[in-house]
Amino acid sequence: MLIDGARRQSIWPDPEGEGVFILDQTLLPHAVATVLLRDLADAARAIKDMQVRGAPLIGVTAAFGLALALRADSSDAGMAKAAEVLRATRPTAVNLAWALARMTEFLQQMPDELRRDAAFAFARHLAEKDIACNEAIGDHGLALIRAAAEKRNGAPVRILTHCNAGWLATVDWGTATAPIYKAQAAGVPLHVFVDETRPRNQGASLTAFELGQQRVPHTLIVDNAGGHLMQRGEIDLAIVGADRIAANGDVCNKIGTYLKALAARDCGLPFYVAAPVSTLDPALAEGGLIPIEERAQEEVTIMPGLAANGEVVAVRIAPKDTPARNPGFDVTPARLVSGIITEKGVFEASKEALAGLA
Ligand code: MRU
């Protein structure tokens, strides 16, 4: 997708072979900066500190991180240790473990001395596969947006999204945003309502940024406004991403997703989840078993932003020492999900429909 009119991806290998480049998402939207990841520690830190984030991008970064680690030690023990370091960075998005498992399965079959180059090639393959999956999600989701457009008689289709399940959360296209970008390219009029997504504000800082760069009409709303707009008939459908989907179709996504799904059900609106099949976790029977990341209290009590003098500053918004709780994700029960848009088609959120997909 575009930044300042130029095609960009969220991660790409350094053509000089020094490592892997990422966009530092902690600086967006105020600065567009690239960072070179040179080794395992760099990759692990980038995931943990959320310079890269979003389930599919975390997975691809981990794959490149393993490839970087194998430059130092390509033995079975070295590979297992590096995978462990990467797996421990963030607990909820299953794409991280998925990508490491694919890498390890592939590399274990070959002698140590061939692993270094093969690991990079396979990580590149996973990155390209991510792009292709998301584009296919876009095509399947476009049909749903077209169906909504028919009821709007030429007026824009109004779509609510939560957090950033955009191209910045993947290698390109995004998951929830892929159908939006496809609809825009197809000339379907639309308007996206973007939840700010407290506490880290990925909607305000990332989704609003990428939709703006892509010239998709959009409006930023506070997290609590979505239900109100739905009740007033100002939203036609919701599309969100996912960090892990249990075997029964329960969907784990950024905190606050559940409340939007409840409001959508109450208002009789479709609530879609867009995710590649690598986000399915058939090993977990239901969403209650998904590990939920608990993040720092300071993310709730202190907010960063751009000051009038152009400097990024952090301001405290609660009394000093106020205790805070910060679960990063929640689980939306399958019964509230209208459909899961994957690269293989749109599926009912149920054990039967999802069986055998992953
Ligand atoms: O904590 P983050 O920013 O990694 O959380 C990201 C989300 O919850 C996304 O909505 C989800 O990963 C889907 S990514 C296509």
UniProtKB/TrEMBL annotation:
Belongs to the EIF-2B alpha/beta/delta subunits family. MtnA subfamily. Substrate binds at residues 53-55, 90, 202, 253-254. It catalyses: 5-(methylsulfanyl)-alpha-D-ribose 1-phosphate = 5-(methylsulfanyl)-D-ribulose 1-phosphate. One of its GO terms (molecular function) is S-methyl-5-thioribose-1-phosphate isomerase activity. Pfam families: IF-2B. This is Methylthioribose-1-phosphate isomerase. The record marks 163 as: Transition state stabilizer. It comes from Candidatus Rhodoblastus alkanivorans.
